[in-house]
Each structure stands twice: as C-alpha cells, then as structure tokens.
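Intended use. Records like the one below are meant for learning the mapping from a protein sequence to its folded structure. Do not use them to infer anything beyond what is encoded.
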Amino acid sequence: MKAVKGNKEYTIDEMQKKFYQDSGFDIKGDSGEIIAYGRGKTVPYDDHMQAVKEVERLQKLCTDLQEEKSDLQKELETLKAEKKPAKKAGE
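Structure written out for the chain above:
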C-alpha cells in the first residue's frame, strides 16, 4: 500500500498505516483505491458553500418533482374514474 500527500508517495506496510494517516497522508491500496483519508484535512470555504448550494438546489428539485408526481397521480385517478367501462345494452 502507499501513503500519498501532495507530491510525496511512500510505500508502507500495515504497521505504518496509522502513523501516515495521522500525519495527513491518504492511504491507497495496491490497485490505487483509497483505503483511508488522512486526518486534519479541511475543505476551502468556497467549495463548501458550492456544495451547500448544490444540496439546496437538489432538495428543491426533489420537492418540486414530488409535487408534480402527486398532481399527476391525482389526474390519473380522475381520468380512470371518468373512463369506467360502460355496460353494454345486451348485458
């Protein structure tokens, strides 16, 4: 496995994993997938606010779509009720 931070990359073993993770290094497996993120990382405020705005946008979109779905279900029920099969004269 590897410990990666910035342009530094070290090959480590399981016993060194905690030390490097505590030092802020991301730990990657042999195939390149991240096993653990380094401690002490922060996200820039602009990135955080961008994520917050995107979450708010998606929540509003979800609410709008749920309302639209509800309206369409009511309309469908109304149309089904209006189109009940009429009995034929011979029955």
